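Fold it.
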Amino acid sequence: MLNALRDPLKYGFAVGRIKVRETKMLGSNRLDRLINADDFADQKRILAETDYANFFQEAKTPEDVEESLDNYLAVLYEFLEEVYPDKQILSYFRSRYDFHNLKVLLKAKYEGKPIERIWSKLGMLEIEKIKKAIEESELEEIIEPYRSALYEAMERFEQDRDFQQIDIVLDKALYRYLYEVARKQKNKFFIGFVRSLIDLVNLKVFLRAKILNREPKFIEDAFLNKGYLEKEKLVSIYHDTLSIVADKLKETPYAAILQESMVGQEFNLDLFDKKVDDFLIHYIQPVKYIPVGLEPLISYIMAKENEVKSLRIILIGKLSGLSAQTIKERVRVQYV
């Protein structure tokens, strides 16, 4: 498989198209212009110079911005599916949105409420079909790995009546699936990327549980396997102060994230999220110049999703009246 991914005849065209797209990314300078724009109308004039031009013409509200950015990513994935021959790699990224939608639909079923507009159109599963299947508890036609994950989540919820069990079960299924896709590719960069991603999710669960004063058993239940960090290690330091936790994990690649996320003696989870995103961008930057293979695709998708996230912060921040300085502090490191 690795040799196939290096095949310049098969993948050279796709990577060439991706590299051209990379040259059109916004970059830090243009994001700075957007941050310092007078207002949202001024921001739209700046975006009119970019490949986001057609997505914000009618946008006026934060909800419009969210929808416009989702539409942009949907078109981006259509482009990638058109040019990239290995569809399983693309399904790897889009499955994250499917699992998110399963959480939304399952919680709506048990809460007895209509679905709010928080499901994503970036998934691959047909939303109305899945919605009907979940409402009627008829899951046979849903494909794997979603079907078995749904069965388990429904069983766990009906035992405990705890909505958090839905998140735990579906997150475990998602990351188990992501790891298996990466493992089958036999690509060290890809496997390492997924294992780091799993570690960072585990660390966030750990920090949130400490802040909410949950029992250590919660960490044991929610822990995702296949990362580099060991569950026993996290459980053993669970009752330590946050500063000691940061010190005991100083030999890991995540030490800087933990240290820089502390404000006084407290962790700031919003800051942690930003540092995680910055870490992942730094992780993929070294593969930027690999001419052919899987790495250019993964790095481009991650870079574009990171760009979209920054754009969301900047545009909604401006519409919400945040200062340029506050917005700038929240914007992620850019790939280009």
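Residues 294-319 form the longest helix (26 residues).
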